[in-house]
Amino acid sequence: MRFLPRLGLSAALAITIFLSWRLLQTPAHSQGGDLAPKAEKGFTLARDTFLHVQQIRKRRLRTFCSRADKITMLLSSQVKGASLLPSLRVNTKLDFLYCQVPSTGVEEWQQLLQKLEEANVTLPAPVPYRRLRAKETQLSKFKQTEIKAMLGSYTKVLFIRDPFHRLIATFLRGMGSSPSFSSFIQEVLDSEMHSGSMAWKPLVSLCQPCLIQYDYVVMFGFLRQELDQLLQQAGLPAGSLLPELTDRQVQRTYRWLSEQMFSELSAQQKKQLSHFYREDLAAFLFPSSFLSEHPITA
Predict the structure, then answer these.
(1) At a CB cut-off of 8 Å and minimum separation 6, what does 200 contact?
(2) DSSP three-state, residue 248
(3) pTM score, two decimals?
(4) Rounded to whole angstroms, how far apart are CA atoms 231 and 124?
(5) Tally of CB atoms within 10 A around 217
C-alpha cells in the first residue's frame, strides 16, 4: 500500500500525457525559455535561430563560470582528472562527447547514435587528428592524453532540463524507497550532493560545464528540432533517423504535475531545493521552474 501514491501519480501522468496532445495545437508560453514562443507541433527551427539560441545559452553559461569558483582546467593527475568526469561519455565512431544524466534527453540521444552506427553513417570528411576506435564509452577510462585530444576535437553536447522536472521523473521511475514525493525530496536533501544519485545531482556538478567547453546545449522539450539542427551542423543525416520523441508533450504535462507536487513540499524543503540547485538555476535558463520562482537562501 505504501506505493499507491506513486502509482496514482503515474496513472495521472499517463492520462495527462494523452490529453496534452490536444494542447500541442496552441503555442507554449514560458516552459521552454528562449524557444518557448515557437514551441508548436511541427514547428521548424531555422538554422540561424538554432545558432542564436546556442549563443544565448553558452553566453549565460560563460557568465556563470566567470563568477563561480569552478575548475576550468583538467587536472594533470589521471585519478584526479577522472574523478571530475564520471558522467561523460564518448562515441569514437562519430566523434561525439556528451554528459549522461538520466531524464534529460540523453536516452533519446543514445538511441539516435545507435541508429547512426547501425546505418553505417560516418563523418562526411577526413578529420585532422588520429581517430580512436574503441567500444569503451566512458571518457574517464581513456588515457589522459586521449581525454585531452577528445575534449579538443570531439563535438561536445550537454543536455539540460528543469531540475524539479528531473526530480519528478526520478520519483515516478521508482528510484528510492520513499512512498511519497515529499519524503523522497527529503531523501534527496539528506543525501548531500557528493553522496547522492546521478539521477538528481545538479547538472553543473555532473557535467562540469566550466571545465568542458560544450559546443551545444540542448534543452529537454525541443529535442527533435534541436537534434535535427545539431546533426546537420555536424554534416550527418537527420530527419528519418531521429527516434520518436515525446519530450514536448511530457514537458507540458510536467508543468501541470509540478504544481501538484510542489504543493506537497514544506516551505523549508522548497528553500533547500532551490539552494541545492542554485548553480543549475544560475548556469541555465529555466524561467518557469518552480525552483526559480522560490527565494534561495544560504
Answers:
(1) 163, 166, 167, 170, 188
(2) helix
(3) 0.84
(4) 11
(5) 22
